[in-house]
Amino acid sequence: MLLSRYVNAWEQVDIEALVALVREDAVLRMPPQPHVHGPADILDFLLGRADIRTLRVAPTFANGRPALVLHRIGAAAAGEDHPHGVLVLEPSADGSSIAALDAYIGTDHVTAFT
Q1: Beta bridge partners of 29
Q2: Rounded CA separation 15/76 (Å)
Q3: Protein fold of 2-111
Q4: Most exposed of 8, 17, 32, 52 (fewest Cβ within 10 Å)?
Q5: What is the value of pTM for the model shown?
C-alpha cells in the first residue's frame, strides 16, 4: 500500500525510497507558498525547510486520500510533540506512486484528525 510505504520511508528518512515513490512530474502544493515541482526539489524541501527528521507522522485519510498528520517532535515547552499540519497524498492513477502532495500547515488542521 502506497501510504504505508511512504510512512516507512519517511520514518527511516530513506531518501532513495521517498524519491522512488514520487513521480517525475509530481508537485507539492502548500498555499500560499509557491508550488515545488519534481521529486528532487520536493525532497530538498522536505529535508531542508520542513526537516522531516523533526516530524512524527501518523497515517490517516483525508477526503478519501491517504494522508499524514504531522507533529513537530519536542517542539512544545515541556518537550512534548506539537501539532504541525497535515500532508495529503494524491496517488497516481494506478496507485503505485505519488502524483502530488498537498500540505496544510497549522494546528487547526491537525485537530480535525484527533
Answers
A1: 102
A2: 27
A3: Nuclear Transport Factor 2; Chain: A, (3.10.450)
A4: 32
A5: 0.89
